[in-house]
User: Which sequence fits this backbone?
């Protein structure tokens, strides 16, 4: 069971570690959640430290095209801001807000991807219960997010096939993805025991 901590902590992150608490309890391994949260923290910190070291090495050896050793970031860049003259739109209004709010449309497309993933996972769990669950349960412990990614691939394929008017704005989807990542990957509040 400890072998699963690598996938949960490093690839899934804090949100997955918190979401798997019930599964750890079910397998009589409640310490697994704490270990997964610790591994997620180690993963973030090592990713930041190693990433910064790799970027610095790339800049110093001239392997980067965007960053240079003689570049000095502006005050706005150091503060994490985009200077007013360099700002770009976060999204484009592709539909008339009087018919449907564009943000709602794009959020709905992401929700449909998750819904497709949930339906697929529920269907796989149902098939498993009917055919072999008494000998081996696999899909009962599969988290939703990898199956939701398959739902996202299906939605993307449908959009590419049928969106002739290009009403799906890539920048809007990217903003929603960034928002979702920020919300889902932030460390959960875990009460003290």
Assistant:
């Amino acid at each position: 069971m400890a072998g699963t901590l690598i996938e949960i902590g490093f690839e899934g992150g804090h949100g997955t570690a918190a979401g798997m608490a019930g599964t750890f309890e079910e397998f009589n391994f409640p310490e697994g959640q704490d270990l997964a949260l610790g591994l997620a923290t180690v993963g973030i910190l090592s990713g930041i430290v190693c990433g910064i070291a790799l970027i610095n090495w790339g800049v110093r050896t001239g392997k980067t095209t965007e960053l240079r050793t003689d570049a000095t970031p502006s005050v706005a860049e150091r503060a994490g801001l985009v200077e007013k003259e360099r700002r770009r739109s976060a999204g484009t209004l592709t539909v008339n807000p009087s018919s449907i709010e564009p943000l709602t449309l794009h959020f709905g497309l992401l929700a449909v991807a998750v819904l497709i993933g949930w339906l697929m996972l529920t269907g796989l769990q149902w098939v498993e219960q009917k055919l072999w669950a008494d000998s081996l349960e696999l899909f009962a412990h599969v988290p939703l997010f990898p199956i939701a990614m398959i739902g996202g691939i299906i939605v993307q394929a449908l959009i590419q096939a049928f969106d002739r008017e290009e009403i799906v704005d890539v920048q809007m989807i990217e903003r929603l993805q960034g928002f979702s990542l920020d919300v889902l990957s932030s460390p959960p509040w875990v009460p003290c025991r």
Notes: The two ends are 23 Å apart (CA to CA). The chain has a mean pLDDT of 84. The longest helix spans residues 31-60.
